Predict the 3D structure of the following.
Amino acid sequence: METTPQQQRVAQRATGQSLVEFAMVIGILLMLIFALVNIGQLLLANYTVNQAARAAAHQAAISGAQQSAVDGAASLVMDAGVGTSFRQTQVEMVCGGACRRYDQVTIRVRFEEQFWAQLPLFDRFAVEAVATRALELDRQGTP
């Protein structure tokens, strides 16, 4: 069965219409996919930073608030995380009082990085976590 010229024109119009509709939708679809990738990266970083703050607070508590032990614990966790690195991390330790036994030690971990899939207005993000523990040793190391 042969097609008439009129049927050929209708088929060409339908093909052109599909191409225009695809061009209109592809931008929105790609932005949604990139946004999902960015949300995943943000969730992974948030989990890792929280774990780093908890591990660093624990290390501070059992080491008598030694900064090197705190940095070491945070470094291990941040370097083991997916897409996180200790190089982009800031660790701050604050003792309540003179860093004596049973004083509170607060660890603040902040991580800042670029998104994997950069979108307009959303190219960087920062995640921060805080953990507090009671010291088990004095700063001098005595129980």
Summary: Strands lie at 89-95, 104-119, 122-134. The longest strand covers residues 104-119. The first helix runs from residue 5 to 63.
